[in-house]
Amino acid sequence: MTIANVIVDVPASSINQTFDYTIPERFRDILQPGMRVIVPFGPRKVMGYVVSLADESSFDKLKELADVLDLTPILTPELLDLGKWLAEETLSLYITAYQAMLPQVLKANYKKELERLRQDSLSSELEAFFAGRDFVPYEELDNGHVRFSKVQKAIQDGDITVHYLVKSRVTKKYVTYLEPAREPHLLEEALQDMSDRAKKQQQLLTFFIEQPQEIKLKTVMKKFNTTRATINTLISKGLLRSFRQEVYRNPYAQTQFDRTEPLELTSEQHEAIKPVLHRIRDHAHEVFLLHGVTGSGKTEIYLQTIQEVIDRGEEAIVLVPEISLTPQMVNRFKARFGSNVAVLHSGLSQGEKYDEWRRVQQNEVQVVVGARSAVFAPFENLGIIIIDEEHETSYKQEDQPRYHARDVAIHRGDYHHCPVVLGSATPALESYARAHKGVYNLQTLSKRTNDKAMPDVHVVDMREELHAGNRTMFSRHLKESMEQRISRGEQVVLLLNRRGYSTFVMCRECGHVRECPHCDIALTFHKHSNQLRCHYCSYEEPVPMYCPMCSSDLIRFFGTGTQRIEEALTQLMPEVRLLRMDVDTTQRKGAHEKLLNQFANQEADILLGTQMIAKGLDFENVTLVGVLTADSMLNLPDFRASEKTFQLLTQVSGRAGRHDLPGEVIVQTYTPDHYSIELASRYDYWQFYQQEMKMRKRFQYPPYMFLSLVTISHENHVTAIQTAQQIAKQLWKYVRQDTVILGPTPSPIARVKDRYRYQCMIKYKHEPELRALINKIIRQFADDMRKRDLQISVDMQPYQLM
DNA sequence: AGCACGCCGACT
DNA sequence: GTCGGCGTGCTC
């Protein structure tokens, strides 16, 4: 094989194809598909992935590839295929798909530098620029001390040249070791000759004479309470030697895990696990939907199926939503499988993520627990893929490639002939419908393992509170119940369903709301920096003292953020110890864990937070869960609003009274009769499913129809509309009779970063050629996209309709 | 994307 | 003449 087919790291649709390069002799034996290479691309050099090798090319002026970055492939043949499939499925670029499958640090870092080629006769301007150096980073041109044209001229004249560098971001961690550099008897001699004043050196030498093995430098420094200086002296005398050894960063090094043994399964669990184990043993692909109420022991089923996979020498992937990747969750896996587990989540540093990924790649672990992107873990003998809380929307990636981890998991499960288990107490409607139709194998766990009843749910009608003259955020029932529980030494969790709320700033005089100058959205107030901030473009400005419209000083903060609740609660119940958990208080690394620990140690009576407290937390002493605004999501223009409300209420109810103390849930709402709230309060998933399916059918939404969303954006309002109209027209022309094109309509946020956004929604039952059609239509606008900065993006099966 | 090339008006 | 701005085409 003399030719490499390479996908280059240039994210442009005109480059979305393989480029061929001849393989220099020295790389012929080692180069394999799945390795990263550096290739010349036009005048510069870029990184690329070798997707295949060949003996000939249809292109006749081939260049040689410049370098090979990996010793072994970082993408397996399966992942190479998967990336291709993913790109085509989501209408993304191949390069974007491959990048999404790998840790950030494996991405290339591009640098340019200037080299002076002659030591004489540079103009004084350039001489000053180089300042005695032969190589200068290109960015120094921006300092403005040298004119760009001068440099350009010098490049043309051959006095200077530009180097295009492709650097790796990989940082490896090393530990330094010390060992004696000479035979013990020679050290002995040196010790005799040593000055009496060099006490520390003597101690060190004595130590190494007695113990001539290698030892960590850090340990030595600690043991003898000394510094590098002393040791360096001994090294420079040639008595000791230091060397560095690469180590993996281990984010869980400090934590002790008590090993747990498999638990006895209930008969229900037993029934549910049996068919999964069969599939593992038969090496057969099947998708299971494990529908189990909170506390029914889904995790134990995961653990025991994984054990079977491990025993067979195969590997397992467990996906968990980002927000429930808490230490509690991780511990359960580490406790069962010890160091055989790698964990991948966003809380790790880039280096830590890379190290965990490498433990997978080098077959050092058999289990990965991680968020969405862990579905790409480079295992080669997958025995099972588990997706916990499969209904969670965070499994859908919201930027390119817009994939759903569930689809990827099923595709991989099919390839590896292994089962995929989707677990949830409140399955996504799509999943349950498939299970109901027999596409997925449905397994139900209806009982909690401890036989405890689910806590009672009280729905409080907040309209009545208002009529009764209670204008606070807390109903009388909630307030009384909180006081009662806290006086008994029990704990309370309060959930603010914040979606749909933000803390914006409004003038009470003229009603002016401060909006982002670049986006059509109100700015959000951030207390700690006292700034207004745009969540879409990161624009920031200080909070105005006076209204910019009418100069009034009656500026007020609106909305119902956790901060405001905290203040209101402190006024209402001044004695209470309160912990607030939201984006603001959990930004710092480890803050999340610290807050939870504080609560677990009963250093607070109330934990107040957003969605992130609804998942997986398990506190013995919590007996009351209050949902402050259950219907805040229901009014959003989202056909999944009811589903999300039902899911959230069910999840959060599972947080109360999981142990000996009986629990209670209080749900505050302005729409107590809404079926999602009413049925969630009765834990009736089946009724909810049927009711919601009726709605979806009536309004022609998934799972009855598929959706695809095309978004068009341009800085010129008219161009955006017109293009959107043309696209809609084209779509109408070619789609089937029963397919509907909605729009163009302005996106819910009509302008972001000074670009106007319009969208067309495609609703269809069966459109096998839709991807090809959309591609064809987009290609017609290729010219405008490049020359006039028109952007068209496509989301197949969108979750967020904006 | 990011670079070079080529055309054009403007200016030391 | 030469500088720098922008539109256009190409990248194995």
Automatic annotation (TrEMBL):
<keyword id="KW-0862">Zinc</keyword>
<feature type="domain" description="Helicase ATP-binding">
    <location>
        <begin position="279"/>
        <end position="445"/>
    </location>
</feature>
<dbReference type="InterPro" id="IPR001650">
    <property type="entry name" value="Helicase_C-like"/>
</dbReference>
<dbReference type="InterPro" id="IPR040498">
    <property type="entry name" value="PriA_CRR"/>
</dbReference>
<dbReference type="Pfam" id="PF00270">
    <property type="entry name" value="DEAD"/>
</dbReference>
<feature type="binding site">
    <location>
        <position position="510"/>
    </location>
    <ligand>
        <name>Zn(2+) 1</name>
    </ligand>
</feature>
<feature type="binding site">
    <location>
        <position position="547"/>
    </location>
    <ligand>
        <name>Zn(2+) 1</name>
    </ligand>
</feature>
<keyword id="KW-0347">Helicase</keyword>
<dbReference type="Pfam" id="PF00271">
    <property type="entry name" value="Helicase_C"/>
</dbReference>
<feature type="binding site">
    <location>
        <position position="507"/>
    </location>
    <ligand>
        <name>Zn(2+) 1</name>
    </ligand>
</feature>
<dbReference type="GO" id="GO:0016787">
    <property type="term" value="F:hydrolase activity"/>
</dbReference>
<feature type="domain" description="Helicase C-terminal">
    <location>
        <begin position="542"/>
        <end position="696"/>
    </location>
</feature>
<dbReference type="InterPro" id="IPR027417">
    <property type="entry name" value="P-loop_NTPase"/>
</dbReference>
<feature type="binding site">
    <location>
        <position position="516"/>
    </location>
    <ligand>
        <name>Zn(2+) 2</name>
    </ligand>
</feature>
<keyword id="KW-0413">Isomerase</keyword>
<keyword id="KW-0479">Metal-binding</keyword>
<keyword id="KW-0639">Primosome</keyword>
<keyword id="KW-0235">DNA replication</keyword>
<dbReference type="InterPro" id="IPR041222">
    <property type="entry name" value="PriA_3primeBD"/>
</dbReference>
<feature type="binding site">
    <location>
        <position position="537"/>
    </location>
    <ligand>
        <name>Zn(2+) 2</name>
    </ligand>
</feature>
<keyword id="KW-0547">Nucleotide-binding</keyword>
<dbReference type="InterPro" id="IPR042115">
    <property type="entry name" value="PriA_3primeBD_sf"/>
</dbReference>
<comment type="function">
    <text>Initiates the restart of stalled replication forks, which reloads the replicative helicase on sites other than the origin of replication. Recognizes and binds to abandoned replication forks and remodels them to uncover a helicase loading site. Promotes assembly of the primosome at these replication forks.</text>
</comment>
<dbReference type="InterPro" id="IPR014001">
    <property type="entry name" value="Helicase_ATP-bd"/>
</dbReference>
<dbReference type="Pfam" id="PF17764">
    <property type="entry name" value="PriA_3primeBD"/>
</dbReference>
<dbReference type="Pfam" id="PF18074">
    <property type="entry name" value="PriA_C"/>
</dbReference>
<keyword id="KW-0378">Hydrolase</keyword>
<comment type="similarity">
    <text>Belongs to the helicase family. PriA subfamily.</text>
</comment>
<keyword id="KW-0067">ATP-binding</keyword>
<dbReference type="InterPro" id="IPR011545">
    <property type="entry name" value="DEAD/DEAH_box_helicase_dom"/>
</dbReference>
<feature type="binding site">
    <location>
        <position position="550"/>
    </location>
    <ligand>
        <name>Zn(2+) 1</name>
    </ligand>
</feature>
<feature type="binding site">
    <location>
        <position position="534"/>
    </location>
    <ligand>
        <name>Zn(2+) 2</name>
    </ligand>
</feature>
<protein>
    <recommendedName>
        <fullName>Replication restart protein PriA</fullName>
        <ecNumber>5.6.2.4</ecNumber>
    </recommendedName>
</protein>
<dbReference type="InterPro" id="IPR041236">
    <property type="entry name" value="PriA_C"/>
</dbReference>
<keyword id="KW-0238">DNA-binding</keyword>
<dbReference type="Pfam" id="PF18319">
    <property type="entry name" value="Zn_ribbon_PriA"/>
</dbReference>
<dbReference type="InterPro" id="IPR005259">
    <property type="entry name" value="PriA"/>
</dbReference>
<feature type="binding site">
    <location>
        <position position="519"/>
    </location>
    <ligand>
        <name>Zn(2+) 2</name>
    </ligand>
</feature>
<comment type="subunit">
    <text>Component of the replication restart primosome.</text>
</comment>
